[in-house]
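Hey L., structure's done. Input below.
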Amino acid sequence: QVQLVESGGGSVQANGSLRLSCAASGYTASINCIAWFRQAPGKEREAVAAMHTDITTTYYADSVKGRFTVSGDKAKNTVYLQMNSLKPEDTAIYYCAAGLSTTYWTCRLASGEYNNWGQGTQVTVSS
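Output:
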């Protein structure tokens, strides 16, 4: 199993920026995709972005393309989500998730691909 801890959430005004961190520990060799999901009050959880930890390919939901960036630090076993130009609709609890890609080279923006989840970190964007 892999343990994930998110951090970096907080409150920010619209057009501001935040950087979320997802620190992984445990048997990290058992996963090759790390993704970010979010869930706003009253809404279903949705995928935001993902990264293949071996080849560093990144994937983004249309709603965040051009604003959010996924990156990683292998030495720290940490994946980041840099969020720029934040909008009130970005307000949600953000979750980090890890899993083993069923296609080896591709990470999917789908919750079923991930079986390791962090506790979540709150992001609030005010107007």
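The chain has a mean pLDDT of 95. Residues 39 and 45 are 4 Å apart (CA to CA).

-- N.
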